[in-house]
Amino acid sequence: MPQRSTRMSVLVSTLGFPRIGPRRELKRALESHWSGKTTEAALLDSAASLRAAAWKRQKAACVDHIPSNDFSLYDHVLDTSVMVGAIPEIYGWKGGPVPLQTYFAMARGSRGAIDGACAAHGHRSAVHGLPAMEMTKWFDTNYHYMVPEFGRGQTFSLGSTKPVDEFLEARQLGIHTRPVLIGPVTYLLLGKSKDPSLHPLALLRNLLPVYVEVLRRLWSAGADWVQMDEPALVLDIDDATRAAFETTYATLASEVPGLKLMLATYFGALGDNLAVALKLPVAGLHVDLVRAPEQLAPVLDGAPKDLVLSLGLIDGRNVWRADLEPLLARSEAAIRRRGTDGIVLAPSCSLLHVPVDLAQEDGLDEDLRSWLAFAAQKVDELSILGRALNEGRDAVQDALVASSWAAGARRVSTKIHDPAVRMRLAAVTPTMSHRQGAFEARRALQRQQLDLPAFPTTTIGSFPQTEAVRKARSAHAKGALSDGEYQAFLRRETETAVRWQEEIGIDVLVHGEFERNDMVQYFGEQLAGYAFTKHGWVQSYGSRYVRPPIIFGDVSRPEPMTVGWSSYAQSLTQKPMKGMLTGPVTMLQWSFVRDDIPRLETCRQIALALRDEVVDLEAAGIRVIQIDEPAIREGLPLCKAEWKAYLDWAVECFRLSASGVADGTQIHTHMCYSEFNDIIASIGAMDADVISIETARSKMELLEAFTSYRYPNEIGPGVYDIHAPRLPPVEEMAELLVKAKERLSADQIWVNPDCGLKTRRWEEVKPALVNMVEAAKRLRATA
């Protein structure tokens, strides 16, 4: 058996590293494979190269516990479903290793049956393609995961040896890693049962043998530590769930006694679950001291003497450079209590949520750049702390001085403070967050002015960003296309989209957003207080990456942002044209936010900037304005005791942005891939005239929240999943609308896709929207 490490000193670990590659190499490899340009073998070779580069980079930075199995071709939760064989029947898996084709069908759907299995079983999807599994947000982040699907009588069996394979792959490179697994309890809690009476934790007894098998294989392969990610321990859980943790780790410890388990918790404090976590038979416990610094004292007080404590000191969720001196002092205090061999230094969570390397950014303001740290720099910060503790401060004195200087310079910089913004914020009154009339009065006026049919059709906003659009944007950015030529191109694209929508009979049109790069970036680039990177990509899901803006200072709107394009589009048609904005909470949540003032204060600043835009759109003749807020739910604190405070200011900020218009102007909002049941009253309190939501993947399940609450306003339930490359038939969409009528009154229902169409191709979008309009017509005919 391979020799295992016995080093005794303060160790440095990472919990996960970005998987996308410094230049989005994974995106290109995936999309090339999906398009049929490259083979499966070529994709796997590219993936192996990315893993090797990440491991070598961390080893060069003197990381002691380097993670493996943190890489994924699509999603680490989906990887776990494949590992344990939780494959829904529709995908035709019969046991054994799960084919990559099946994996991608689960992730993103397919245009037809995978093999012959689905057709042989009579699945209608064999004709129209397989749907993707449901997708939702990973805790309170903007990362999306594929929701595991369970059923009564669910069995589990080993479908993938990926954790072992990647551990051995790293060992071949001379790198000893700490494999990462999503813990069994968190995995089950992330899933959904097709049978409402079946609680996922009832399946724990069936699931644990697969985990035992994987851990045994890792131990045999030479692993000494395995990281078990159990972020569910920072949630509000009941006694039965706490008992499930005890059962789980008692079983794993007894079945694989030589293997050390690092129980990793993050995104918050253990709180009432601390006592349970401290008595589990594990060798180490990781705690998030960025989100919950206050938990260090009780953890130190209660931890058994032989329990290794992993201190999550470096922020894995944000891009700000750490002030290392206070972190060093905190580490030294912990070492005095626990000794050097009882402490590990780590980021608060996986570095999946931050960009790869600041060294690629050469166009940022120098002051701002000196305040930032991406994944590579955060690993370096950990290394500096580790060297300071193991070798003495003198070994890294220059780095410590530079860290303190950067932190001090940021605090006093005039670049982050705008007195005019602070004065305007102080002048906000409660009446500014309320529409003039009640919804019923607004509805009557809007119906009179807009003259829409029953079950009106619309889309969420964006149309395909084709290769021609991307090339034109790139050419304009490089100076190869003049401003006039680029504007003319965008006008042609916009007019084509408007004419086509008129032709197929959509009722409320959109201009297509061809001038926009990203729904947050486009606005942030026009707001003061925002900065942007060139290569600061992070994964949202699969091959979908975003470059979150950096909010570094006070936010304001120097001039109108969307009025010109919305006005031009409205001039092309007599039908209502929607103005499209991204809401204040989403602008906040999908950015890297400054951490020197409360988040709610920044959100209010953004709301006031957007309020100016809404008022200007109305003045320009736009009578329907959509303020997208897909991030409302994901911003919800994980601890329920903190929900009310967050929801109060989030709702207030949305209303502050929307309430400057007359009653005849119809305000829409859009939300996707969120569970609304537990916050439905707050969704209603937003008082949008129309809300559009994702319901296609959940087969209208999300509408249950809107029926029990008796949602008063109008709703556009998404009737087809835009993220799957399949053509939804008219019958399928019509059936979903019939289900919607069972839960909502007919005069509440709008008809729309479940999300924007930016990432799809026109050859997919056109027939799907034609079918959608036909489904609405059928519903009108039977109303």
In terms of topology, how is this protein built?
Blueprint: E1 11-12, H1 25-34, H2 40-60, E2 66-68, H3 76-83, H4 100-108, H5 117-120, H6 125-128, E3 135-137, E4 144-146, E5 149-150, H7 162-172, E6 177-182, H8 184-190, E7 192-193, H9 204-221, E8 225-229, H10 239-255, E9 260-264, H11 274-279, E10 284-288, H12 296-302, E11 308-314, H13 324-338, E12 343-347, H14 366-370, H15 375-391, H16 397-412, H17 419-426, H18 439-450, H19 467-477, H20 483-504, H21 521-524, E13 528-531, E14 538-541, E15 544-546, E16 550-556, H22 563-571, E17 578-582, H23 584-589, E18 592-593, H24 599-619, E19 624-628, H25 643-658, E20 666-671, H26 680-685, E21 690-693, H27 703-708, E22 714-717, H28 730-743, H29 762-782
Parallel strand pairs: 1-12, 2-6, 5-7, 6-8, 8-9, 9-10, 10-11, 11-12, 16-18, 17-19, 19-20, 20-21, 21-22
Antiparallel strand pairs: 3-4, 13-16, 14-15
Helix pairs in contact: 1-2, 7-9, 9-10, 13-15, 19-20, 24-25, 28-29
Describe this structure in words.
There is one protein chain. The protein is of the alpha/beta class and 783 residues long. It has a domain at 441-782: Alpha-Beta Barrel (TIM Barrel). 42% of the residues lie in helices and 12% in strands. The strands form six sheets. An eight-stranded parallel beta sheet has the order 1-12-11-10-9-8-6-2. Strands 17-19-20-21-22 form a five-stranded parallel beta sheet. A three-stranded mixed beta sheet has the order 13-16-18. The longest helix has 22 residues, at 483-504. The termini are far apart.
